[in-house]
Amino acid sequence: MLLGLMLLSACGLESLLGLATSSDHPAPDGGSGPDTQPAIVTGRVPSSFVPGLSALDLSFRAQAEVSPGEVTIDAGQNAFSAKLPPGQAFRGLRVEVRRKTMNLFALIPEALPGETRPTGSDVIGERSTAASLLVMAKASARGLAVSSLSGRTLEASLQSLDSLSGSGPVKVFYDMVAAIASCASCNRGSAARFSEPVVSPAGLVVKSGLDPDFILANPVDYAPSAGAEDTTEAFDAAMQQALAEFEFSLCTCDDPAFVAACCANPELAAACGPAPGRPVIRVVIAANMNAGQKDGNCDVIDRFRWAENKPGARLFVAAGVHPESPIQDMAIHQQLGAWTPNQVPMFDDGTNGDGKAGDGIWTASFVLPVGMRLGYKFSWGLRGDNWGGTEEWPGNQRLLEIADANGDGLVVRLDNFGDETTNKDKDNMLLRANGGSGTVTWDTDANKDGIPDARERQVDSDGDCRLDAWVNPSSVSPLSVDCP
Question: In sequence order, which ranges of 182-321 are alpha helices (DSSP H)?
Fold first, then answer.
């Protein structure tokens, strides 16, 4: 049962069993070591690439930019030692060395408090760059952030690429990266040589790992027997062939094939949660409490038409499994608050799935079965308050069907507090001229964009009252687990 419990924890399915994050079950901090100890990352850069290395040449990124507390440079070795923020652990940490048009990458699978990484070779050069580009590309094709992958998965991938780099398509790609990185005269323009690639699920390069502006300004003979190249075409083709040579030892928890196999194994049955055989997905419910937000009629929302802006108030979400949901589960219903107001807190402090502290966007995250249907609404009050004077509007509810509309492995719903024109089921105030009818059902699609109003949807990013951008939360990633 140990493996089953490991899968249960890794998939976040403990939430499905009713262990909601709360004051009784606080969210873990970023690290597993003493709060005062930092993870330390080291690296050496060949002086032929970047002579006279300085701290200004270095940047670090996991889910977001990471600012080291201290960076020490060893001039004799052209090396560095960086102390990361104390008490925090980082997975899929990308180290970039950049000076003018030269840049190189390295991936650190896992950096833990009190430990120094990497434990093997710490050379940041053409080989680490090639491996990093391929891992980033493979993660992109799976719809995953590199930082969402386990340290074990990343370590295994880097080892696999190292063993494959002596021949075949992986060697061809490594050689191309080496030729581009080694071009001493490639200093025209301001674009760096390499960038994070984007690859489609079918394995086609959508955004090249070779910057097109760089190679246009600095043609390089990087493809065998082809002469100087000034496009990314050959590079992209080589990347696609190299990507076919390795695979992550990873399963995503919203993959029906994985869930079916998991639940068919008696030893792993516990990992299926209370909805056996059903995929699960991370769900982010967020509310914008900033003044001046507009509703679906392009009118400014009165946030405190019904709620009182009392001192010390914070945002809560009250929700429950909808009676019309094809999946009914009392444990999940209780986890969502069972429609008790001012009990399930939302966060605007950069934790618990919240992207940025103090930006006025409050967040709560859950792990729920795909296909479940919820009712929910927001309240602004003190813990334990009743509905009166706290709910965004009296009566009625918002609807949400758990379905991934944009294929990012997440369900993200960002609403404006007090908006009565979106997914409010009854007495909906969206004007008929804007597609409203007074009610919203599971199939209503007021703006005719092909996505029902009761699902995750795009948001208005520029205040013109048109939905134009998907929410891309930086602090959460799709659920995944190392394959058993």
Answer: 212-217, 233-243, 256-264
